[in-house]
Amino acid sequence: EVQKLNQQLEEKNGEIQKMINQPPYEKEREILRLQKSLAEREKAQATSDVLCRSLTDETHQLQRKLASTAEMCQHLAKCLEEKQRKEKGNSDDQISTERSNRLLDNETSLQALICNLQDENRMLKQKVAHV
Questions:
Q1: Is residue 119 part of a domain?
Q2: How many domains does the chain have?
Q3: Residue pLDDT tens, the chain, 131 long
Q4: Annotated region Disordered: where (predicted)?
């Protein structure tokens, strides 16, 4: 291991000697190349930071929207259930069945909306994790 480290040290010393022996314009060209590379990396990092913040904000907004939609769905389901109970006592079975079907359709569409929002939220979280 010591020999391996000594060999690596010799290689680094050789690279340093090459750099020292290079003409000044070669050194300047290497410095400019490194500065350009650094600037590109900094720009990429800044862009990544902006995208990450944007996705985080959008994720929070969608989470709030999903929560309010879920609350609204629960409220509507309760209202429809109460209305169905009241109407069930006042109407025959056919009308009650039709209303139950409509209620189920409404609940199904609301559940589908919730599922879609949850899927979108999950995809955004994956994008945030990826960024």
A1: no
A2: 1
A3: 999 999 999 999 998 888 788 777 777 888 899 999 999 999 999 999 999 999 999 999 999 999 999 899 898 889 988 888 888 766 655 555 666 667 677 777 778 778 888 888 888 878 777 76
A4: 1-25, 82-102
